[in-house]
Specification:
Belongs to the NnrD/CARKD family. In the C-terminal section; belongs to the NnrD/CARKD family. 37% of the residues lie in helices and 14% in strands. It has 481 residues and is of the alpha/beta class. Bound molecules: ligand NPW and adenosine-5'-diphosphate.
């Protein structure tokens, strides 16, 4: 399991560790030795010339310990403090020890050369904008012909949001201490991390946000039932498609019947049936509007290929009064309250739809996707699937996951409809809503990843996505996480 921590949470963890007897000096030692091990895995240290640029905080302290390990191992390494000597107590003590061993440091970097430059200037304690001195250092570092390795967070990137200073370090690699920071998954900061590696420092993992995985024993990939019949795996209702957008309903229905739905009824426009039925003969059709309170469906999805109009709003209000879980997508998404809903609600907006739901700007949402989705989920008591690269899944208890499967092959109209269908099928037979949602997003992305292993991403059609569901399920069943 991989974990995500905000900057404040890291500070709290350090304080808690200290109060339990694990002091920051020891944690810094653990970080530095972990960084050294990762560096020796990634580089033949005897053939490299290292320059470590250390800041005044604990990020710089990690750099001091790393410098000591490199020097002790006989590597060519220069430690430099271009912005002043360390101010924090553990970093100062590590510098004292470093000097006691007879090692020296520089304070003026601009004439120094190296093949690998380590950015230990700023980490989880960054506040933007950068000072002019820090900006100049970053500009210089980015211009050097050397491998750039950042410690924890590339200097100039925010820890908790996608914000970056214009002179942010573009790292080739980032060695992330203890757990991921949100900016690793938020653009533009995410693009500055290069290849990330995690450095364990021996502290227990306590984050409520994790990276999504699918368990090999999850009902999403296991399909068992003694004496099973079609009723065992649930009956889904998909309210989707219009005369002008029958394809959305077809894509969602395909995703659903390919993911283990026992039965599927599609509530749609009569004119859409021939298109949907030609692709999904398994489905049944219904031309009513919404559902009675006492219906027999196991779960309901609404909105694919439907406009966000008054008719859709009436249907959504009906759905919120019945008790089976409801997925709201596309035309079923609107600015409204879910606080009086009698059922579990999952909203699956892309960033534009989430902006419409919240009245916020899309660009502000994108910079702060984890926080924005989480806040909405907690306030409204719903599950939010905020789609896009690194889809964010936020639960109403404040926990959540970030999904790392999927690729640009999915960036096409219709990919999201398939996800809604997969989600409906999994929700129908899962006892855990949380597991159903995160598994559906994971498997949907994995379909695109399997495709991309041997085929060009641009040639992936949303219509073909469902063909890869069997491979995604089998792969995850064998591998599990
Ligand atoms: N449990 C863990 O994960 C552990 C994590 N550890 C490590 O600790 C790191 C966090 O250390 P941290 O809290 O000392 O903050 P850090 O990033 O060094 O920055 C503070 C310094 O930066 C300065 N500064 C800030 N913004 C600036 C700006 N815009 N422009 C210029 N300067 C700016 C600020 O200056 P000030 O505002 O005080 O004047 C202060 O001097 C973390 O990333 C990880 O590497 C390990 O040691 C082991 C345990
Ligand atoms: N670059 C990408 N990386 C990973 N997933 C992506 C990427 N681009 C799009 N996706 C996924 O594709 C789907 C697109 O959904 P959506 O925008 O609702 O499309 P539509 O409404 O046309 O079906 C979402 O699940 C989204 O997370």
């Amino acid at each position: 399991m991989l974990y995500i921590y905000k900057g404040e949470e890291i500070k709290k963890i350090d304080r808690q560790a200290e109060s339990l007897g694990m002091d920051s000096f020891t944690l810094m030692e653990a970080a530095g030795s972990g960084l050294f091990r990762q560096l020796t895995d990634d580089f033949e240290t005897s053939k490299q010339c290292f320059l470590i640029l250390a800041g005044k905080g604990n990020n710089g302290g990690d750099g001091i310990v790393l410098a000591r390990y490199l020097k002790t191992a006989g590597a060519s390494c220069t430690l430099c403090f271009p912005a002043g000597l360390p101010k924090t107590e553990p970093a100062r003590r590590h510098l004292d020890y470093y000097e006691a061993l007879g090692y020296s440091y520089e304070t003026e970097p601009f004439n120094l050369t190296a093949t690998v430059m380590i950015d230990a200037l700023l980490g989880a304690g960054t506040s933007l904008p950068l000072s002019t001195e820090m900006k100049n250092l970053c500009v210089w570092l980015n211009s050097q012909k050397a491998e750039r390795v950042s410690i924890d967070v590339p200097t100039g990137a925010s820890t908790d949001t996608g914000n970056c200073d214009s002179s942010v370090i573009h790292a080739h690699k980032t060695y992330i201490v203890h757990g991921y920071k949100p900016s690793r998954f938020l653009y533009p900061a995410a693009s500055c991390y290069g290849e990330p590696s995690l450095i364990e420092i021996g502290l227990p993992q306590t984050a409520r946000w994790t990276i999504s995985t699918v368990s090999a024993t999850s009902p999403s990939v296991q399909f068992k039932g003694s004496n099973a019949h079609k009723g065992t795996f649930g009956h889904g209702l998909l309210i989707a498609g219009t005369k002008s957008m029958p394809g959305s309903a077809a894509l969602a229905a395909l995703g659903c019947v390919s993911s283990g739905a026992g039965k599927l009824t599609v509530q749609t426009a009569e004119e859409a049936v021939s298109v949907i039925a030609s692709h999904v003969p398994e489905a049944m059709y219904d031309f009513h509007t919404g559902v009675e309170d006492a219906h027999s469906f196991s779960a309901i999805a609404a909105g694919c290929g439907r406009p966000a109009d008054d008719a859709m709003e009436d249907i959504v209000q009906q759905l919120l009064q019945q008790e089976k879980p409801v997925i709201l997508d596309a035309g079923a998404l609107a600015p409204r309250s879910y606080k009086a809903a009698k059922c579990s609600v999952i909203v699956t907006p892309h960033p534009g739809e989430f902006a419409r739901m919240t009245g916020k700007q899309t660009k502000d949402i994108q910079l702060n996707r984890i926080q924005e989705a989480s806040q909405y989920a907690v306030e409204q008591g719903v599950t939010v699937v905020l789609k896009g690269e690194y889809t964010v899944i936020a639960f109403s208890d404040g926990s959540g996951v970030v999904n790392t499967t999927g690729n640009e092959g999915l960036s096409k109209g219709g990919s999201g409809d398939t996800l809604t269908g997969i989600l409906l099928a999994l929700l129908m037979r899962h006892s855990s809503l949380e597991e159903a949602v995160k598994d559906a997003v994971y498997l949907h992305g994995l379909c695109a990843d399997i495709w991309k292993r041997n085929r060009p991403a641009q040639a992936l059609r949303p219509f073909n996505l469902h063909d890869w569901i069997p491979a995604a399920i089998s792969e995850q069943k064998e591998r599990g996480d």
